[in-house]
């Protein structure tokens, strides 16, 4: 068995040779063949990388493999988790007792290993099986996997998707889905972040019960009125806004992370006085000041106001005094989300974290020593040897263990205004 270091060195040399090679030396028709060989080689390297993932092991003080992998390869944690999941489905495995096991998608894995499939092909096949009803038998599943793997070797992913759709109908011609099948597919999510105009696009897959309830609500509150210029879609949007607005701040909702279930918004005195610019919610949403002023009158929200020049906190408006929650509200306003480097978890879903010394180890709950961290990153400090400290400028620095290849530092994601230098800092 050869040395992986020697193999990687040889690969580096081969890549250099490829980069220096001139494809124009080939006749025009042959250039496509050369690119096809190159694509196959790239795919095979990806497959080899997935195979090597199955040999990674956690050691003492090491966080879960996807977390380390994301930092070492500088990829998102979601991408790292997907690669680990792909490896489990496409690469031969071993049982807990050491016995060899075939991949969960054996024929797909074989074609993947040969460099004949792209990641998009794999996504189509994975989605097919994810959406397949539970009542489809094992024999049919094995035949379907073999068929899709064979077609994927001669088709583009968009063509394969059409074949997968036809095959899904063939295996479930009556469209029979159990409650478990439907429950697995339900969901709501935002499709990316806010657009340049501040609007957001979401995707809702509603089960029959939610669809029935929404139909009843919209029939009343989205009904057309005389001289109403709004479209059908606009009326439904506004009816949903009324539904949520009527619930936020209701004491019957209880609390979330120690605070009432309502909006927490940050802005500056200068923006309020000008009536322009954007406030920021603890969910990371940019809210135009004009919308904020319009929403503030009837609502039960929290508004933290800062001086836009010095950053000093000036005022904390709230519907009623919650002394134990005041610090958390100001932390949400100050940090807006998890302070771990690169983390995008918003403030609503973050926890209060002692930056210098954890409370259970004698740390004090002083506002200058508190920061925000999501549940996952909080555990890095508690269980995996990370440390944090407050910098003079008020940011939180995360320091990884010395023996783990992770990236530390501060997080600028929730403060895009820091990404551009101020006028007096420009060269």
UniProtKB/TrEMBL annotation:
A family per Pfam: DUF222
Keyword Repressor belongs to the record: no
InterPro entries: DUF222, HNH_nuc
GO MF annotation list: endonuclease activity
Keywords for the protein's UniProt record, in alphabetical order: Endonuclease, Hydrolase, Nuclease
Keyword tRNA-binding: no
Domain of life: Bacteria
Protein name from the UniProt record: HNH endonuclease
């Amino acid at each position: 068995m050869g040395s992986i270091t020697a193999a990687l060195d040889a690969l580096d040399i081969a890549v250099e040779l490829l980069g220096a090679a001139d494809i124009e030396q080939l006749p025009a028709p042959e250039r496509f063949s050369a690119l096809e060989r190159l694509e196959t080689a790239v795919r095979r390297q990806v497959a080899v990388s997935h195979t090597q993932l199955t040999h990674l092991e956690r050691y003492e003080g090491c966080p879960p493999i996807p977390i380390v992998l994301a930092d070492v390869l500088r990829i998102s944690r979601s991408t790292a988790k997907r690669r680990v999941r792909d490896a489990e489905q496409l690469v031969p495995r071993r049982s807990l007792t050491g016995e060899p096991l075939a991949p969960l998608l054996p024929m797909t894995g074989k074609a993947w290993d040969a460099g004949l499939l792209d990641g998009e092909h794999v996504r189509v096949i994975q989605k097919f099986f994810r959406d397949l009803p539970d009542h489809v038998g094992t024999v049919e599943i094995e035949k379907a996997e073999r068929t899709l793997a064979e077609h994927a070797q001669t088709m583009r992913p968009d063509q394969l998707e059409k074949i997968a759709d036809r095959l899904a109908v063939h295996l479930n011609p009556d469209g029979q889905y159990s409650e478990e099948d439907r429950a697995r597919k339900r969901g709501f999510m935002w499709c990316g972040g806010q657009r340049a105009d501040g609007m957001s696009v979401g995707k809702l897959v509603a089960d029959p019960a939610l669809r029935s309830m929404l139909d009843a609500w919209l029939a009343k509150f989205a009904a057309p009125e005389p001289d109403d210029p709004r479209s059908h879609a606009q009326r439904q949007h506004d009816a949903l806004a009324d539904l949520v607005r009527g619930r936020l701040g209701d004491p019957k909702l209880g609390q979330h992370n120690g605070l009432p279930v309502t909006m927490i918004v940050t802005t500056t005195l200068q923006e309020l006085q000008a009536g322009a610019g954007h406030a920021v919610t603890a969910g990371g949403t940019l809210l135009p000041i004009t919308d904020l002023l319009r929403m503030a009158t009837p609502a039960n929200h929290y508004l933290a106001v800062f001086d836009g020049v010095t950053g000093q906190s000036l005022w904390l408006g709230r519907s009623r005094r919650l002394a134990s929650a005041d610090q958390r509200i100001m932390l949400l306003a100050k940090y807006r989300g998890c302070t771990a480097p690169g983390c995008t978890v918003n403030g609503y879903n973050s926890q209060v974290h002692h930056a210098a010394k954890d409370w259970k180890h004698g740390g004090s709950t002083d506002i200058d020593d508190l920061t925000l961290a999501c549940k996952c990153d909080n555990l890095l400090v508690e269980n995996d040897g990370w440390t944090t400290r407050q910098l003079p400028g008020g940011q939180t620095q995360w320091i990884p263990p010395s023996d783990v290849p992770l990236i530390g530092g501060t997080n600028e994601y929730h403060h895009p205004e820091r990404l551009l230098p101020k006028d007096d800092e420009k060269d």
